[in-house]
Amino acid sequence: MGDWVIEANDLKKVYKMGEVEVHALRGLCIQIASGEVVAIMGPSGSGKSTLMNIIGCLDRPSSGDYILDGERTANMKDDQLASIRNRKVGFVFQSFNLLSRATALSNVELPMRYAGVQRSRKDRARQALEAVGLGDRIYHRPSELSGGQQQRVAIARALVNSPAILLADEPTGNLDSKSGDEIMNLLLNLNKDRGTTLIIVTHDPDVATRTQRTIRLRDGLLDQKL
Q1: What pLDDT score was predicted for residue 118?
Q2: Distance between CA 67 and CA 137 in Å, rounded?
Q3: Alpha-carbon distance 10 to 109, whole Å?
Q4: Residue range(s) defining the domain that contains residue 216
Q5: pTM of the model
């Protein structure tokens, strides 16, 4: 199987909207190597979000094969998908998705709570926050943090279970250019230091140029016009 952390073979996804069938993916094949930094780009309706949801085990394909870090997921039940998602995938979203009343430390602890981790939870959360440069902000709530700092908390939360892949959806989209650059530097340094596979879904060509490879989609397939 090689060193692929992601293998997608002939992925198809069809949504039924009343009498209409929408073909979001039309037989997509991609491979992403362990430790690679990849951007996924494409116009609205190209299948980016559908592919991201399948990669992140938030959804399953209508047909085809998806293997995440050696595990076939296409026929998994919902609880199995939830389990592999919590073990193998760290999510970073454009809107941060932090609990507003919880401290940075409590927000970062969340994935470990879901995973049933009891021991050393606070220590691991503190270490993750230190790794993103927020060791002095662990008891701050989101309202007490800048946008860039909130995204750092979200990245620490995504990393705390040592996932096989970090899946970032427009991670700089809600940030000013300086904060966006800092977040990109942080993500790339974490990839370099930890070897975590980094997949960034983005509209921003400047973000894409900083990755090792860009996967471009059009009409549910790889864009062959490039």
Answers
A1: 78
A2: 38
A3: 37
A4: 4-221
A5: 0.92
